[in-house]
Amino acid sequence: MNAAEQARLARAEDRLWYSRILRERVRHACGEASLPNGASVLDAGCGTGGLLRGLAAWRADLRLHGVDLSPEACEHARAQGGAEIREGSIEELPYEDARFRAIVSTDVLTQVESPLLALVECFRCLEPGGWLVVNSAALPWLWSYHDERVQSLRRFRTRELRTLIRQAGFELRALTHWNCLLLPLAVLRRKVFPRGDGASDVSVPPAPINAALGGVARLEHLLGRAGLRYPIGSSLFAVARRPMRRTRVHES
Fold first, then answer.
1. What's the number of domains the chain is made of?
2. How far apart are CA 97 and CA 125, in angstroms?
3. pLDDT at 246
4. Per the domain annotation, does 220 fall within a domain?
5. What is the largest CA-CA distance in the chain?
């Protein structure tokens, strides 16, 4: 993501409905993983640090770390405090083996040359029994100006992401679409009435609209927690675990 988009993200991520609901989903997944007190957690592709701030507010005992390829993003994330930030690639994580109890990576696998290599690196840096939480853009047919502006390389089909996670050696525990209820609006925005100002959709809409979109997304999340599964949606959310035993990585 270029510097201009990084700046847009830094301004928007604490208020934008999408970022807030994504943080809720990540916190819920980490809660289900029953992370022990003082667990080390890495945000792989931390950007400007918004998710790390959300995790710190949720559980102050966690030892939080972030890594990002962008020097500007790392600088901004360090300025927020509360986490150790390193500059580096998710495809070559600058950490020793079995370093973390959990790794989260949101909207990053779409931007790297080799998603499988990135997942293998996450596997290496997780301790046996450690957890991986991934969010990614879905539905290749929804590709638009937004993906180009944030420098994405792909949007995933469900089977593609499932295969990559398993090839990396993980036990897949959950993989579901979300942003299903708001998908018609996304199609209208991305395909019918696209932006004409050369920017991405990373911006906060007027407060009433932002609140309404967030309310719909939160309702969808609560229904999902109650057992409802969505067959389609503009995002994919996955939870996986590194097995306690050694798992051989499968070649693609």
1. 1
2. 5
3. 59
4. yes
5. 52
Of 57, 60, 53, which Cα lies nearest the Cα of 80?
53
Q: What is the pLDDT of residues 191-216, one digit of tens each?
A: 999 988 878 998 999 999 999 999 99
Contact yes or no for 125/168 (Cβ under 8 A):
no
**Inside any domain, residue 179:** yes
Q: What's the pTM? A: 0.94
Phi and psi for 90 in degrees, rounded to 5?
Answer: -65, -20
Note whether 78 and 84 are within 8 A (CB): no
Nearest to 220 by CA among 35, 25, 6: 25
Q: 65: domain CATH number?
A: 3.40.50.150
Task: Look at residue 252 and tell me if it is in a domain.
Answer: no
The range of the structural domain enclosing residue 188 comes to 3-241
**Bridge partner list, 65:** 42, 84
What is the number of other CB atoms lying within 10 angstroms of the CB of residue 160? Answer: 16
Residue 251 counted as domain residue: no
**Phi and psi of 173, rounded to 5°?**
-100, -30
Amino acid at 219: L
